[in-house]
Specification:
6-stranded antiparallel beta sheet; extended; alpha+beta
Length: 155
């Protein structure tokens, strides 16, 4: 061992790895969030970050299929294939299918049930699963992803 080389540093249990001031700051932040949320709940503050309510103008019943590669298939109520999307085209549709699959597994209902694709009066699109009660406003995922479902509604 050379004269300039130091042995590896080891920590003893008495040494503090995280400074006490940071631990106190994290605790303070958690307490502040807890107080803010509690006040909001106790005062009955309404939820403000929800999609705007709007009447449904068009509903289409669809059957979704997909896989982990991003490929997706969409069938109409009568069983005709509306879209057979490659992994490059069907990523978002396949992602919605995977969420539906998880929700349906969690609720113990049939995996291959229908979903309702809805257009609202304000131009927004949403998808809902009648078997589990799950729904999503598609504009929350970006305009391009909502457009993928808008094309399915138009076909």
């Amino acid at each position: 061992m050379s004269a300039t080389a130091r042995p590896p540093r080891t920590y003893t249990p008495e040494e503090k790895i995280v400074p006490l001031v940071l631990v106190r700051a994290m605790f303070g932040l958690v307490m502040a969030v807890l107080v803010i949320v509690s006040i909001a709940v106790w005062t009955g503050r309404p939820v403000t970050s929800t999609p705007p309510e709007s009447p449904v103008t068009h509903v289409r019943v669809l059957y979704l299929g997909g896989d982990m590669s991003g490929a997706a298939s969409v069938r109409a109520e009568d069983g005709t294939v509306i879209a057979d999307l490659s992994p490059e085209e069907g990523g978002f549709v396949s992602g919605v299918y995977r969420v539906l699959h998880r929700e349906r597994t969690k609720h113990g209902v049939a995996i291959d049930g229908p979903v309702e694709l809805m257009r609202h009066e304000n131009g927004r699109f949403s998808v809902a699963d009648p078997s589990t009660g799950w729904s999503a406003d598609l504009m929350g995922f970006g305009r391009d992803n909502a457009r993928a479902f808008a094309k399915l509604l138009a076909q």
